TrEMBL record, chains A, B:
One record GO biological process: inosine biosynthetic process
Keyword Metal-binding: yes
Compartments where found: Secreted
Keywords: Hydrolase, Metal-binding, Secreted, Signal
UniProt-listed Gene3D superfamilies: Metal-dependent hydrolases
Protein's recorded name: adenosine deaminase
GO cellular component labels: extracellular space
Organism this protein belongs to: Cerrena zonata
Enzyme class, spelled out: hydrolase
Top-level taxon in the UniProt lineage: Eukaryota
Length: 535, 535
């Protein structure tokens, strides 16, 4: 029996030997904090999750409550847990996968819009009590006066622009009045539980709603004054959540932003000048608050959408090169975005992408690929095959890599070459690649030694602002994963960032110092349980 | 570009090099048949699946229709496809994972019960229109007369036994009359779509309904005259579906069966004598029909339930040894069954299981372990850890192994030692380990070179009679998988059976001959498309 237990322990060690949370010796405090967190998780598995499940056979009224369950249904419960409150304070490292135009709370975006009287709104069809749940509002900054006063009056002619403030004030009480207006806009900017889990409960269906949220927000965010506020808010809320560095994907698909004059004429370089100015302003504010060490910076991955023709892509790669030349420290990567299952696969773009690499060599610049790939449940489909092309094209990281776990050779390559996966667990769940966290293949990647960074993807749409929610969902859905796993994930997010070596070194030092402080605070708060072996 | 495509092809080859469907050179006919099947699949992806999806954004009335979708919702649509009709004719090889007491169509089991006037039925609470959906009928063979005449009359006293035929005939029209009775019994024996996908939409919840079906069927199947009919029907329907050999798990948890006299006194050895006699009778019938070559035989994996105490388990291991000594060619394995997430893990039974091995050595017999393990979405939980113990205890195959894909070392061991996984895709989906086939981790096992046999598990409860449904769901959910993959899975089911070497050789020869016939028939029917490269 003793022999058996020895063999068992050795087999488990071999099986988990690739795991990156096992590569580093842990301090006594770290082990103690990890045990404390496991104990909280075990306690709350009963007191929060099991207690809220109507556990009796035959009761069909309760939703399905369990750790790692559907995020949109669980969110309020999650926020009440001790575990969540503890994780809020954890230094998260880098946010490596977020689409900048989907990073700010939808209510705040609406507030920004209402602060600008020139923002107008219109509808393509009259609003009815039933159509309001799917009616898509359209925005536009307009300087010319508009005569229309209400979207809900009988006299409203579809297509007429109404100033947003007036539209809100005059929103008919049958539609809930001004609060009804706010709810309508926020609902159009986000995915709600019934959409994700009932109405559009497949990847293909929910992607349609997902894309419609971008159609609503796009003009607002591309209005230069709002763009600046938006970036500031994104930085501020991210740093408040413990994120110290960001590599944001900016969608340069639209060639211009709307200026204060309402003209759609602001070129890409000005978007970046704004970004730099706002970042500097944010940095100064933090310094004044004595929080300078909490923020390393933000850089940009240039993206456009996978529906460009191969020839059309060249406009964007040239544009990207020009921006890289003007903002060498800001532009750090290139990617193609959109629904992989339905849009063009990477293989269609090999020609322009190889040309793009060649042009860079000639010009002596380097814009690494950081491709989305394998964001699919498909096996051997074009979206799944994107993984091969991403790796052959030399991608530095893989966005999503949801289907990577199926590919033995690619797992080995990612482990050996240090190609990190930007895993977006809540995004994957809401976009119906997985039904809940226990079904998510992330543990397979961790056990295979693939470096992983957790990412929020489009928190404005999903409601997973910051990184705490994604860390939480990952932590509660696995007994193997513990606080020290999350620590290694945070460390890896900086390690696999595209910072310059000296910047990276600096960012890692700042993180380690905050991590040690975090660990000490857990041990101080929960020291008494530290000696009991949980799990 | 040419160089790129060469590198790409080489990377894909490396990635898929472990796959067992790539280990064998294929004939021209096989390749042609595979292409034809891929073409049918591609055509039906549009004509059957896409055509039935209400693809418009905003339409929330249609269920989510796609290839590999929820089986219980899709079943009738699946049966209309060309692909299904083609797969029915495929020789499936061995059925290696099926619980004998859940293998026969529920309507047939009810028919068998109605053929025996001594079968009585009772209820523990009065039946109401609302309680009927969850009311559990209880059966018992009784020879004494009963005065009660109806379950639905006002005078029915809960607990009173009613003869089943009378109970059916007198079932009140408010409950649907005799047809309502049949529906009630069949519903209690099966899982329906609303139970799996709405009411009890988590593994824990649906397991309660799942277990309740066994509570209903258990006494009926353990009534000796029905037991014999049940086995015959299982053999007959399996062979009709192209299954040529079966390793059935029999649950010996109950120590006795009910005899014709209604006494619960028939010991395990008589169960097996019945099995042998019925099998022989079935074999003779097949021979008379000139179908002798379609059936190799049936053998038995002894199982009991994971809630036994470690000491209590020894009664069963001793019982298993005695049966092995009396029926050496029939008893070919030992397993523990039940809900892994909630019942005792293998590690609790190491002591009696090691003793069991030692006793076998002393007696010069061999009863290999064939353990259920990893039938869970858990990561590092006791159910997931069962995989380590199953392998350390020398399991010949793994039942389910749903969580195996997360374990790099265990995948390697299974590949290298030829430990096959008995994959039960439809069972996993209905029991909510996965929400649909595209989310099932089976492709990861195939790509890792783990031998796989597809199995139906409990088709009486799930409605996936035979193996065609499981083969279908696997085929439509992956572009990598093709007909030749299914062929290799069928071949592997025999290769990894526990037949004696000579028996195995014989079974494989019979299968290869039927496979070649099947391939030829596809080529003859679809030869014209054989030359077009699909996929």
């Amino acid at each position: 029996m003793e022999q058996y237990l020895q063999n068992r322990s050795s087999l488990i060690d071999q099986d988990l030997s690739f795991r990156r949370d096992r590569t580093k010796a842990n301090t006594v405090s770290e082990l103690s904090a990890d045990r404390a967190v496991r104990q909280i998780r075990a306690t709350e598995a009963d007191s929060v999750w099991l207690a809220n499940e109507s556990a009796y056979y035959g009761d069909d009224t309760s939703p399905c409550i369990f750790p790692g369950m559907q995020f949109l249904t669980a969110k309020s419960l999650i926020m009440q847990t001790k575990l969540f409150k503890l994780l809020v304070k954890m230094p998260k490292g880098a946010l490596l996968h977020a689409h900048l135009d989907a990073t700010v709370n939808a209510r705040l975006l609406l507030k920004f819009a209402l602060e600008h009287p020139c923002i107008h709104i219109r509808l393509s069809r009259p609003l009815t009590i039933t159509s309001i749940t799917t009616a898509i509002p359209e925005f536009r900054p307009l300087t010319a006066a508009s005569s229309a006063l209400s979207l809900t009056s009988d006299g409203y002619v579809p297509g007429e622009w109404v100033p947003i403030v007036k539209a809100r004030d005059s929103f008919h009480e049958n539609f809930g009045g001004p609060e009804g207006f706010d709810k309508w806009i926020v609902d159009a900017l986000m995915i709600n539980p019934s959409e994700a889990y009932e109405q559009y409960n497949t990847t293909n269906k929910i992607w349609r709603k997902f894309q419609s949220t971008f159609a609503v927000s796009s003009v607002l965010i591309r209005y230069k004054p709002i763009w600046r506020k938006y970036i500031y808010e994104f930085l501020s809320s991210s740093v408040d959540d413990g994120i110290s560095y960001i590599e944001a994907r900016i969608n340069f698909h639209y060639k211009h932003m709307f200026g204060e004059d309402g003209e759609e004429s602001v070129p890409h370089r000005e978007w970046l000048i704004d970004l730099e100015e706002v970042t500097e302003q944010f940095r100064q504010t933090l310094k004044q608050q004595g929080r300078g060490n909490e923020f390393v910076g933000i850089k940009v991955i240039y993206t456009t959408v996978r529906h460009a023709t191969p020839e059309g892509l060249e406009w964007y790669t040239e544009d990207c090169i020009q921006l890289k030349q003007e903002f060498p420290h800001l532009i750090i990567g290139f990617d193609l975005v959109g629904h992989e299952d339905s849009l063009k696969p990477l293989i269609d773009y090999i020609d322009p992408l190889l040309k793009f690499r060649k042009r860079q060599e000639e010009l002596g610049i380097d814009i690494p690929f950081v491709f989305h790939a394998g964001e699919t449940t498909g096996d051997g489909t074009k979206a799944d095959m994107n993984l091969y092309d991403a790796i052959l094209l030399g991608t530095k990281r893989i966005g999503h890599g949801f289907s990577l776990y199926k590919h033995p050779k690619l797992l080995q390559i990612c482990r050996e070459r240090g190609i990190a996966v930007e895993a977006c667990p809540i995004s994957n769940e809401i976009l119906r690649l997985t039904s809940s966290m226990p079904m998510h293949p992330l543990p397979a990647l961790l056990n295979q030694g693939v470096p992983v960074a957790l990412c929020s993807d489009d928190p404005a749409v999903f409601g997973n602002m910051g990184l705490t929610f994604d860390y939480f969902q990952v932590l509660v859905a696995s007994e193997t994963t513990g606080l020290l796993t999350l620590g290694q994930i945070a460390r890896d997010s900086l390690q696999h960032s595209l910072l310059e070596p000296a910047e990276k070194e600096h960012a890692l030092q700042l993180w380690e110092s905050r991590w040690n402080f975090f660990i000490r605070s857990i041990v101080e708060d929960h020291g008494s349980v530290g000696d009991q072996q949980v799990n």
